[in-house]
Amino acid sequence: MDTAPDVVMSLSRPAPLLLSALAALTALTSSIARADESTTWEDILRGAPPIQYSTLSGPSFLNASARTYEVVSGGTAKMHCGVRNLHNYTVSWVRGSDIRLLTTGSITYTSDSRFVAVNPSKGEQWILKIHYVRKSDAGSYLCQVSTTPPITLTVNLTVQEAVATVLPGREVFVKSGSRLEIVCQVEGCPPPALLAWTRGRQTVNSPESNNYDLVKSNGTIPMSRLILARPHATSSDSGNYSCTSTCTRPINVTVHVLRGEELAAMQHHNTSCSLHPSSLLVLLIQAVLLLDAHYNLGRRHREQPRLLPRAMVTTPSPHRPTFT
């Protein structure tokens, strides 16, 4: 009694093979029944339908070569694994870095809800999707079929990080009453990048609520730009602002709105504290000439002969006797 389930399972797997063989045998028997004495075996076999040999082979990959997928941080990765003749076997996705089981069939085993397995129209393609891709998701992923031993296809995922810049810079000085305009630009983030300007915990999201003009445009590079504009800046506009997006970390900007005399004094101070390149060149030449003169003076002093005091100079007397 214990062996009955095993027998049922073993018979259920080759069912397509048995059906194909029975169909071919039935057609062959029918051809023989209709044949006369002049009919040869070649004629009988030629009229029989072909056997579907695809049911005899096990699972295999449609494309066994390793593939590399590229996606921008914050986007959605879609990695394909095509399997033919799957029969009753299952397809699993495993992360290569830590050999962690992510999905089996359409069931997700990881607690990270960004990972989803899709089998469109119950066909031969098994797709692993990763939503809101992070830099840490880069690496190898294994598509495994539950044969004995399992067959495995390796795919690689590379993640490109988007780049955010702020124009005219991270610190902006503007005269009170003049136009304030800051551009946040994100390159490499798939649209919609969902850019936003914030000040403190408040989002600067519409001209009506904050008296700001917002202009948003999506390019095909892909590039996204969000402009923070104020037609007539006042001292209340001074402060710290942040540009956030779905692909990048917040980038901070400090705005200084100054009165006319304050801005002029600051510009004069910066000009007086900074030297023109030509002035630096003159100072450098003067320093070189001074060092050269000092070096030559020291060399002449070292080369001048030393004179002994007159009291220390002795000359031999011509009348002094000499003893031998």
Automatic annotation (TrEMBL):
Keywords tagged on the record: Signal
GO cellular component terms, A-Z: neuron projection membrane
Record's keyword annotation contains Ribosomal protein: no
Residues annotated as domain Ig-like: 59-146, 149-254
Coiled coil: none
UniProt cross-references to SMART domains, sorted A to Z: IG, IGc2
Signal peptide: 1-35
Domain of life: Eukaryota
GO biological process, any: synapse organization
PANTHER family the UniProt entry points to: DEFECTIVE PROBOSCIS EXTENSION RESPONSE 9, ISOFORM A, DEFECTIVE PROBOSCIS EXTENSION RESPONSE DPR -RELATED
Name under which the protein is recorded: Ig-like domain-containing protein
The organism's taxonomic lineage, starting at the top: Eukaryota, Metazoa, Ecdysozoa, Arthropoda, Crustacea
